[in-house]
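Q: Structure for this?
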Amino acid sequence: MPEQATKPRYVYGVVRGHGKAPAVKGIAGAPLELVDAGEVAALTSVAPGSYLEAGREDLLTHSRVLEATLEQGTVLPMRFGVVVPDDETLRGRLLEGHREELLAQLAEMDGKVEFALKGLYDEEAILRELVSHDREIGYLKNEIAGKSEAATYYERIRLGELIAAAFAARQEEDAAKVVEELRPHAVAVRVGDPIHERMAVNASFLVERAGLPKFDRAVDAIGRREAARIRFRVTGPLPPHSFVELEAVV
Amino acid sequence: MATAVQQQPYRGGSGYVARSSSSGLYDVLELILDKGLVIDVFVRVSLIGIEILTIDARIVIASVDTYLRFAEAVNRLDLMENKDSQGLPDMMDSLTSGGASSKTKGVLQGAKEALFGDEEEDEEDKDEDDGDERAGRRRTASSTTTKRRRRSAASGSGSGSGRRSKS
């Protein structure tokens, strides 16, 4: 491996030392290189400059590099966009400075993968649900029906407000239910905020590879039960983005 | 470390849940931008415009515009009784591409489609297409609201990338 000690590096993640980088291209087409520091190593590629303007392709590359690495073994993913000025900084600030923490997390993540679950409401189904379950919403809806928009301006605002509130409550309820049903099949769970107006649930699960069939069947059962109102999408296996963390450097 | 690519194990198969192992950008965007190891002193790169859109487009519920869109959507439920998805409001028009079309195909088939558009950069195009399809119908307040929101989200991403350029 060529010595690139003075060049800025883009960092994808941390793996165990003495391994081999996957044979995929990194950001800007650069080959992947491991920077070793004994038992831990950083998966990197030489960055085109110390300051990188990244776009869609780079985001995808980051993700693909990590997925290729995950196929080889355990990897602790870095957040997108970490660039270090040189190898000395990389070793000092990350690999050596956090060695114990990194080793502990590598051991903890062995044999485990992340699955991202997103559920999106069927808009018509959820609206019908809200209308039929909330008397005031149903009443206002009937009041407004057939009248001009101008004549019902405030009623419509009130109706929308009620729907927004009822929707938020329903969303919280559904998300909690789904997460609790899947929790027994996961080692850990991170629940995120909805990132879409119609999102019912947005959560990540850390799952033992060995427990994957059970997790999958549980997801399927929920998908089947909720088929008329929520559509689910599961992405994975992914590196454990949501389950790694470093103590701040003091 | 072995270099052989492992085949992924059992990935369900009921057809009720959409699965992807090689991730589309939208599916992982949130994870790779917001999650994972990060160290304070390390530079984070600046992101170019559109990529931030999906993150910054989180919806602000509490506004009169939003309430009116919700109300309109509910009032259209009756119209939808005997009609297909063309009557659906773009109330939730969105980063999704599968939403409206899935109505006509049923939930099962819809579930097999991507919930989220795989190609975020097509979003503006899709929006225009939607407009054409509905050319015969009255342009609704909700669609203009949605467009306006999208624009502001797009322009807001400039400051978003600024915020993200360092950590």
